[in-house]
Amino acid sequence: MWLNTRRKSVVFFTVFGICLVALAVALNIGWILLNWREVALLVLGIVFFPFIIAGLVLNTIFLVREIRRNEQHDSFINAVTHELKTPIASIRLYLETLQTREVPPERRREFYRVMLEDADRLLHTVEQVLRAGRSGDRRRQIDHTDLDFGELVNECIKLARTRTHLDQSSIKYTEFLDDHSRPIIRGDQDELRAAVSNLIDNAIKYSVQEIDIGVELDARNPKYLALRVRDKGAGIPPDQLKRIFGRFHRVPLRVTARVKGAGLGLFIVSAIVKKHGGRVFAESEGEGLGSTFTIELPRAASERNGSN
After folding, report:
1. Is residue 217 included in any domain, yes or no?
2. Do residues 160 and 200 touch, judged by C-beta distance below 8 A?
3. DSSP per residue, 243-301
4. Domain that holds residue 286
5. Residue 109 lies in a domain
6. Within 10 A of 243 (CB to CB), how many other CB atoms are there?
7. What gap in Å lies between CA 229 and CA 243, rounded to an integer?
8. N or C: which end of the chain has fewer CB within 10 A?
9. Among residues 288, 280, 228, which one has the least CA distance to residue 253?
10. CA distances from 163 to 33, 41, 116, 240 (A)
C-alpha cells in the first residue's frame, strides 16, 4: 500500500512538472512570435507566473523529500543487512568450530549460549521489520481487550532485565495510582507490549556509560495514563525531537555508529500508540543530557465511568 501511494505521488508530480515546463515554454514562444500582443501576454504572464513559481517550489519540495526518503531507505537497508549478517556469520563460525574441532564441554555450553543470543537477535530484527510493516498499515484492525497496563509494563521491564543481564537498580519502576485503582486500558496486549519494550530497549541502547533508567506509570488522571521512560544517556538535539519517530530515522549522534538498530523502534511505538488513540513525544535538553519518552493512553471507558 505504501509503495503504491508513493508511486502515485511520483507520477502526479512528474506530470505536474512536465505541464509547468510546457506552459513556461509556450509563454516564451508566444512572447517571441506574438510580440505585438505585449499587453495580452503581459496579463497572461502575470496570471500564470505565480502558478508556475508555486508549482516549481512544490515540485522541488517533493523531490527533496524523495531524496531524503531514498537516503533513509538506503540507510535502513544497510542497517538491516548488518543486523542480519552479523548474527548469521557468528552462528556459522561457532557451528564450523564445533564441527571441525574437539571442544570441551564448558566451551561447548558457552558456544551454545552465544548462538542462542545471536538467534534471538536475528529473530528480533525480523520481528521489527515485520511489525513496522503491520504498524504502518492503517487499515489493519487490532484486537481490543481490557488489560492492566501496570502489569504489562512490569512484564516488559522484567524481560528487559533478563535479556540484557541487568539488576533491579538499573531499571527502576514506580507507579502513581489514584485511590488504589488499577491502570486499566483497552487495547491490543501484544502491540502495546511491543511499544513499551521498544522504549525500554531504546533507553538501554543509548545509555552511554552506566545504565540508570526510570520508568514511571502515572494513573492519577481520570482520563488517561502516562508512561514515562527516563534515561541519562546520549540525549537528543532539539531539532530531532519530532523527527525521531519517522520510519528509518536515526538521530545523528556520536554514539549512533556503535548502537545497533534499523531505525524502526520509535516508528513502531508511534504507530501503535496512535492506533490506540494516544500520543507519544520525547523531551531532552540536548546531546549527552539524557531523554524522556512519554506515552499517553486513554483509560478504559468502563474504568472512567466507575471512577466518576
Report:
1. yes
2. yes
3. GGGSTT-----TTGGGS---S-HHHHHHHHHHHTT-EEEEE-SSTTS-EEEEEEEEPPH
4. 145-307
5. no
6. 13
7. 18
8. C
9. 288
10. 76, 73, 12, 29
Cell numbers representing residue 153 in the block = 509494563
Are residues 179 and 270 located together in one domain of the fold?
Answer: yes
Chain-centroid distance, C-alpha 36: 60
Single-letter amino acid, residue 154 = N
Enclosing H/E stretch for 74: helix 38-100
Name residue, grid cell 555508529.
Answer: 257
Residue 142 phi/psi, 5° resolution? -115, 155
Residue 276 lies inside a defined structural domain of this protein = yes
- What pTM value is reported for the model? 0.62
Query: Tell me, what's the pLDDT at 216?
Result: 92
Boundary (domain end) residue, out of 72, 90, 116: 72
pLDDT at 87 > cutoff 50: yes
Q: Which helix (H) or strand (E) holds 230?
A: strand 224-231
Please give the grid coordinates belonging to residue 263.
531505525
Please state the separation of Cα 217 from the chain's center in Å.
22
Q: Is 127 a member of any domain? A: no
User: Residue 308 corresponds to which cell in the numbers above?
Assistant: 466518576
CA 249/CA 239 separation, integer angstroms: 13
Mode of pairing for the β-strands spanning 224-231 and 213-219: antiparallel
Sign of CA dihedral 94, 126, 202, 185: negative
- Co-location of 44 and 185 in the same domain: no
Residue 165 carries which DSSP code? T
- The CATH number for 303's domain is 3.30.565.10
> What pLDDT, in 10s, does the model give residues 130-172?
666 666 556 666 667 888 988 999 998 988 888 888 888 888 9
